[in-house]
């Protein structure tokens, strides 16, 4: 288990990231993921920059849809921390039991049909090769 | 590579599935996935029933969002057939280069942070354990 | 793509492995997997030793069941070469379309329920913790 | 962690599924997996229908072999809940330490050779392309 | 398959990335990966920034070791494009058949023991929990 | 959870493996992985033989590099036991926070770009096909 580094014990460069996380997310809470990445500041900075851009810069996809995609990946990979944290984030953005249930049903079905396609060695249809 | 079974060569029970696929999707085209599963009719029937329910029964998620989730799983697993077919389906439902780009950016970032969470062995925050 | 090394071009230590593969499998044919591993003889020797022990030493599981398990793993991982070669091996040991269909149905279902268990973060029942 | 829904607190449609699980498995015990899926009744119903068909409808594969395949997938994916529950199910159907050991040996070897095939980029033999 | 965008057809912001790739790698060649990501310029820019930092900024790990790690991940995931491109990159940085063979042997063994640890549900030793 | 078998309770053939582990690693400590595999002695013997050869026979790669590769695979697969044990082994061989941070950054980036290559269905460059 990684050492979790608190704001008080962090360098100035790390505090700047923590401050940006707080400002971007409009909450004082810094979750353990960032406190752990602080063990390697360049990774903390790069990862936050990526997540911030991908999850918060306005674009085609709304914030809830972005969380659903994040959860779909995390559930497929079986990453417990990411499932927990992004499920919480999704619920904060409006995901209720019905939406979560539909999400899980699609994730489960896709994981199943992915293997049927693998196992039956199905050739890609010509019209899908664009 | 699996033998692909055409409508003309299929049993009545298989033709019923093909008919339902055509009616549900409002297209004559049956893609290779279903023609391959026909090698085991119970799997064809069960899989189509699952996909039909999960992808077409009205619910909280719109059809495009469902395809984005399907693609996110297929890309994470690296299933070439599923990526090809669901990318085509997504485009038919309105996915353009910008939406696809945002989707890929989230999928890539989630796959990265999943491994950072694994590697740093980050404990789940108490407030995420609900 | 790896260079495939033929018997004629192989060292004595590699030829000994090829000879053992032929004797164990009762066929002259050496498939590409072994010809590619020959690029690193210690890996060729160790891998053949492992596969030979695990797949051919008499034990509790019959040869067909062993191939079914091998295919289940390969399909889950999406390894095209392994799916192709072990599907061929399975068919040589009695796997017909019905058995393959049942195998794929279980593999697909297990891949689905694995993700439902991940996503719903289901706690292990006390009685399963033995 | 998901809320687990007990029989007493369930709707009639959910109770019908629980009753069918009990009748099919000939045990009063409902394991946590189903109690969690109850948070989304359509997913509960569909998943039980799939598992019931795939694992209990008489076919070519005996019940123990089906559990071995289920475990092989779950171990490859690293799904803790599924490994625990299907290992228990396997043991109830006759899996002893020797069978489990052979199963694990095949799963481990297949996971290894899958990566050797990937890494060496081995072309599929012509005779495997049927 | 994605449309590959050439330098001549690219916007100024994309050309700046291509120029930086060429300058950093000291070669005129832009490989298909970047030409495909150009379909979504923010993803192109972010991904190049990440790869450049992680693979070229001087640090503790030498360039060849970084490629070996990249290959280990790509082989585990079965990403054909990444295996091909990073195997080429590794060879350009000194990876010969012996090094590649040792790398593959470790990757194969780790993938095997990962599943043995999963399947046997081995508790983490107290002394590893630091 | 598997029964862990101690030296005192082990057969002579198992004790011989435990003795070799101790002699090879120059420590009295036998970690839980081996105590669990003892439930199937052939798997214990084969697995130790593989790990010993791959991780300790002198070759092109130094011991720390071998651990970094092992960790990269284990983190990609999300194997908690293997991450814990090989992180400890890596630290014993000189891995500090900076090296671990660089390793994690590469593993994260590779997992991301693997999915971008999958999703954009990028064709392998001719010059990478050797």
UniProtKB/TrEMBL annotation, chains A, B, C, D, E, F:
GO terms of molecular function: peroxidase activity
Family annotation (InterPro entries): AhpD-like, AhpD_core, CMD-like
SUPFAM superfamilies: AhpD-like (SSF69118)
Keywords: Oxidoreductase, Peroxidase
Boundaries of every Carboxymuconolactone decarboxylase-like domain copy: 42-121
EC annotation from Swiss-Prot or TrEMBL: 1.11.1.15
Pfam families: CMD
Highest taxon listed in the record's lineage: Bacteria
Group of enzyme by EC: oxidoreductase
Descriptive protein name: Alkyl hydroperoxide reductase AhpD
Species for this entry: Microcoleus asticus IPMA8
Gene: ahpD
């Amino acid at each position: 288990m990684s050492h979790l580094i608190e704001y008080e014990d962090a360098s100035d460069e790390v505090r700047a990231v923590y401050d940006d996380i707080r400002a971007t997310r409009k909450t004082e809470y810094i979750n353990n993921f960032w406190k752990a990445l602080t063990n390697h500041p360049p990774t903390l900075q790069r990862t936050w920059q990526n997540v911030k851009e991908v999850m918060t810069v306005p674009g085609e996809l709304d914030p809830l849809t972005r969380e659903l995609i994040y959860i779909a990946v995390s559930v497929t990979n079986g990453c417990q921390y990411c499932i927990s944290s992004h499920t919480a984030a999704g619920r904060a953005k409006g995901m209720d039991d019905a939406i979560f249930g539909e999400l899980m049903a699609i994730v489960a079905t896709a994981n199943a049909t992915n293997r049927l396609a693998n196992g039956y060695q199905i050739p890609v249809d010509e019209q899908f090769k664009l």
